[in-house]
Design brief:
The complex is a heterotrimer of chains A (785), B (323) and C (237).
Chain A: E1 2-9, E2 12-19, H1 46-50, E3 66-72, E4 78-84, H2 86-89, E5 94-99, E6 106-107, E7 113-119, H3 122-129, E8 133-138, H4 145-148, E9 179-180, E10 183-191, H5 194-200, E11 203-211, E12 223-229, E13 232-237, H6 242-253, E14 260-263, H7 278-291, E15 295-298, H8 301-307, E16 313-322, E17 328-338, H9 349-353, E18 360-367, H10 382-400, H11 404-411, H12 415-428, E19 444-455, E20 464-469, E21 475-478, H13 488-500, E22 507-510, H14 527-554, E23 562-564, E24 567-569, E25 577-579, H15 580-584, E26 592-597, E27 610-621, E28 626-637, H16 644-663, E29 694-700, E30 702-703, H17 722-734, H18 745-758
Parallel strand pairs in A: 3-15, 13-14, 17-18, 21-22, 28-29
Antiparallel strand pairs in A: 1-2, 1-30, 3-7, 4-6, 4-8, 5-7, 9-10, 10-18, 11-16, 12-13, 12-15, 16-17, 19-27, 20-21, 20-26, 23-24, 24-25, 27-28
Helix pairs in contact in A: 10-17, 13-14, 16-17
Chain B: E1 5-7, H1 12-19, E2 24-27, H2 31-39, E3 46-49, E4 59-60, E5 65-68, H3 73-78, H4 80-85, H5 88-94, H6 99-104, H7 107-112, H8 118-121, H9 161-168, E6 172-177, E7 180-185, E8 208-214, E9 221-228, E10 239-248, E11 251-260, E12 267-268, H10 270-276, H11 283-294, H12 305-322
Parallel strand pairs in B: 1-3, 2-3
Antiparallel strand pairs in B: 4-5, 5-8, 6-7, 6-8, 9-10, 10-11, 11-12
Chain C: E1 5-6, E2 9-10, H1 11-16, H2 20-23, E3 25-26, E4 38-39, E5 44-50, E6 53-59, H3 65-73, E7 91-94, E8 97-100, H4 106-109, E9 114-115, H5 128-135, H6 145-158, H7 164-170, H8 181-191, H9 221-233
Antiparallel strand pairs in C: 1-2, 3-6, 5-6, 7-8, 7-9
Classes of the chains: A alpha+beta (785), B alpha+beta (323), C alpha+beta (237).
Amino acid sequence: MKEKIRVGFDGDFQVKEIEIAEGDPVPWDPSKKFSIVGKRVPRLDGKAKATGEAKFSIDVRLPGMLYGRILRCPLPAATVKSLDLSAARKMPGVRAVLVIAKPGDKLRFAGQEVAALAADTPEQAGDALAAIQVAYDARPFVVTMEAARKPDAPLVFEGKAETRTTGGDVETSKKSLPRNGNVLGPRASSKGDVEAGFKTADAVVEGTYATRVQTHSALETHGLVARWEGEELTVWASTQGIFDMRDQLAETLGIPVSKVRVITEYMGGGFGAKFGPRVEGLAAARLAREAGAPVKLFLDRKEEQLATGNRPSALQTVKAGATKDGKLTALQLTVYGNGGTNGGTGTSGPIKNTYACENLKVDEYDVFTNAGPGTAMRAPGHPQGMFALEATMDELARAIGMDPLEFRMKNDPSAVRREQFRAGAEKIGWKDRDARRKTSDPSILRGIGVGAAVWYNTGDTGPRATVTIHRDGSAEVEHGAQDLGTGSRTMIAIVAAEELGLPIEKVSVSMGDSRLPFASDSGGSTMTPSSAPTIRRAAYQAKLALARAVAREWKVPAESVTVGDGRVSAPGDPKHDATWTEACKILPSQGVAATAERAENHEDAWKRFTTGAQFAEVEVDTATGKVRVDRIVAVHDCGVPINRLATESQIQGGVIQGLSYALFEDRVLDDPTGRMLNPNVESYKIAGSLDVPEIDVMLVSVWDGVNNTNSVGIGEPSTVPTAAAIANAVSHALGVRIKEIPITPAVVLAAVGERAAAGERRVGTLGRAERGPGFREEDAEGGRS
Amino acid sequence: MKPFALVRPKTLAEAAKLSAPPDAEVKAGGVDLVDRMKEGLDRPRTVVSIIEISGHDRIEAGPPAKIGALATLAAIADDPGLHKAYPALPAAAGGAATPQIRHMATLGGNLCQRPRCWYYRLEEFDCRKKGGKECFARDGDNRHLAIFDSDLACCCVHPSAMGTALLAYGATLEIVGPNGTRKLPIDQFFYRPVSDSTHENTLSPGEIVAAASIPPPAAGARSAYRKLKQKESFDWPLVETCVDLTIDGGVVRSARVVFGSVAPTPYRSKAAEAVLVGGRPGDELARRAAEAAIADAKPLTHNAYKVTLAKVELERALKQAWA
Amino acid sequence: MSDEPRGGFTRRDLVRGSLVGAIAASVGTTARAAPIAEVGPGPSPLELEVNGTVHRLSLEPRVTLVDALRDRIGLTGTKSVCGRGACGACTVLLGGKTVCSCLVLAHEAAGQPITTIEGLATDGRLTPLQEAFIAADALQCGFCTSGMILSCKALLEREPKPSRSAIREAVSGNLCRCGTYNHVFDAVERAAGLKTAEVTEPPILVGSRIPVPGSRHENDPRVDRALREVLDEEGMA
């Protein structure tokens, strides 16, 4: 069925004809008067969370439950020489022990799992862990990228790289890549002719940008509670994908998928690191089977920091050229990423997908080290890639003597983001930014910087949902999605309430259980665009079922009955008009229900990236190097936001994580010993209440018609530009380019020293930059003082 | 944590006797001790808890002031009398750690806490402070460590904010031991790890800090405390500065200048003091004093930036004091 | 450890919590215990008064208050995140003051009233602070929420009309990874009557229409192509 819909944003719409799948409602249109979608709806589980009643998986207690613990290797590279669990097995309270690394097995990072056990109490489990006898042969190791890239560096993998990827990781390449020692790659991609692009440029800049490893640090640690009943396994897990967890447990343990049930009712954050049972989940399941009793195995904070994944570090060299009138002519990125024992460290998303440039060349290398494995983390590769790209854009603008925002606007193919840049600039006061640099205190300088966001997802097929309308007029949604804390539960209820025309109080949601209809993983910002259209479709079909039931009762043709605004009626037939509640009374006790599977995206709809722009205003103490972020303006495309309140909350969260990444977060590995020095949340520094600025969140509704709710996810795009914007703001304040994050006092003081060495002429937004061969000095407007 | 017996004596004297054996540890608020026990750094068989012993949490603001060792940092931070007579003290207490920790942590515990050097704090490193042979920090990641006295047996920094402030005020500690009570000027309380780095103070086994007494401020006394942290919410300082000056007739008559978080002990800068005494308060004097203070700085491989911070922060502390 | 019977119930029973309900007594039956000369190292009896209910337990001295609350009594609203006093997730009120229950020995908490998040609502009625947390969406995953609310409760008892900076300071020991801070500040201001919910919702659409040269938001072929490329290449499709 073809339908014409209006697509676009900001009141400027075009009509497109799209193919609607059978049984799917037509996408909401800009003319739609929502009753609840787009409003600020307090989350449905707020009460459970504010009272402590919410049972997270880590809170589950079962009769006879044991406590599991894991023994970890203290060395960065070792071979297990011998392992003896007999003494531990005899310790008080111990009910089961498990070998994870056998003698002869190679361990490749400090913190890798060796053995596990379960005991009656947490203290007994800890005591017994100390009784495990294990001997290692230490092997040479390497933890820094610099050392790992050397030709004679110890090899992390002698043979094939045994990386561990999870459901959240970006599959980095389907083809096999060249490997040279510890270096895998390049993953190369290009378009146009980048060398030709540099030749036509009036200015070329090049810089190398360093970012460090960030850990997810979700508050609830990884782990699960496993209970066997015969051959049936139930786990209460902290996971971003209960179905993925179910399938992996079944496959690894060799039991049918139908015998595994995964429950995640409430979850204390994931940020990309919580996919699949992982080592600890499988250990818990195996210990529980051996002990014949339920086992709870959740990691402590130290284990969490050592072994559960992280955002890899990156060393990015970006070279870019532009004409003097502000057209990008070439973009080139070479990046080396340290993902420890994992690959997937690429950062090219932003440079490929943000600004339009005909000539692009990218070479990405993974460098293996004896460090905890990197894994997907909130917009993998993007905050680091955007930091380098946006620094380059500022430098290039400076080189051609153009305002950095104007330069971006000229090269931004996205109309939505151009509007976001405009709106954000107005809000933060971009035009006064140079005038505001100096303060009454000569050591304090202020700066304003900008960064762009780009993301991609409009949802996946596969999810199913059941919507039941009961005879009392209430409705029930069954959908197996997990709510990581993003507000998915409330989102589901809102979509159903909107479609059925019910107040949200009349809708109940069952979720977080693999016995419920399938839902996608919560990753890639796909939860909402995958689930919302599914829920809407099921609700729409349930509504049609209600109409059919009422039509039968009224003895009128089904197509003559309409449902909406709390009424069921046959238009033009005043006898047949009932309130929703009255109409539902005719239903049998099973009510009416519909189960629907998500329709394909409308490929012929209005396509765009998910975009955003963030502006940061900072104050830099040039004497101490301390940076304070005073304000962030975050302008984002969230499609049509389903719950405005939760959307704003999630953007706040993305900004704060980005700020924390820009200023504080740094996993520190000790070079000589290969151990992590800050496996905690104390010296691994995370922004707290006194470090966060006021954040202005602005939303641009975009009606793309790609799915029936015009929904996209906001989790990832909201954290992509923050570090870039902050680094650009600090660079603006100082008049010197900041080339690494976190921007610690030491980094700022070094930059201040560089400025002093270069002389004051570099200070100012339009100072000189490194210039390419095609640059003619007279082309820069105001480039020199 | 390893199992231990919890002993709760009724007096400090009893506690002193009970805590004298090497396998016993005194516990007040427990903020530091329980953390260390969880990491396996300390495995006492007996924990002698003194937190419930009455009478030692009193704050007499005086002047002269006497503060019981069991007074919490929160109580010190909130005491109006101390704010008036010894403003650096509540400033130091109020900026430490977090509200929750300040409710638990005591003056005595703050003085006796162990350093935060991350090599020391991880059980995997058998560093000199734990009786091992090696200092991992000297050639490792020492970004947060000492810039003064950094060539001693241990290059950690002492984490006590209260020690920094009390040293500036010239406090005297009251020490209860198995054999009675003694007074100890705080100058002699902190131990410079000249050869042995397994302890940070001069207390003998069984000795417990009972109170700190602070002499009354002289006429014209001005003091200030500053704490520079990378992160405002719960972070250990990069540099602390505390100055206690007397200014009379437009001239600095006496000065005590103390840095915290830059040396294995709270670090008194006599060089800065010498510049200050006899000088006229002003930007120039502050600059000269700060320059004198860092003249003998010996930064490690990764912490030269802290020398700059110490200089800037001392200048600012002096200006704050005489503003 | 053996299951030695103590007063008619076994240690394992206690650990598993099956008897907790049966031995919970009403408040007021215990005064602050006289100092005990020595307990442990094995399990020793103690009474904890939590939210007005006395719980009789038998614990080793090394068991911390947060573990006693969560694993023994079953009050799991108090969360354990760092275990070292750095994050505030385990915040409870002990004798009316916020403490990190991960650094408090359970035996030493005996004799002082303990308030956990479960003790705030009465008969299912939430406190204005809890209501404000919900209304302002000052919680996302909810894992820091119990500690946040208790820190804010302690603040409001001390300072009924706190400034925004006082609120920031009050929760500076409560780590949130989802980024709820600004909404927490809003919630406390709401609960203190300093801020009411916005009556008018600002429009979602921002700004004015911008002139886009030569296009009415037409699909930019470059974008379309790039989108396909990235989806194919990175396996995101």
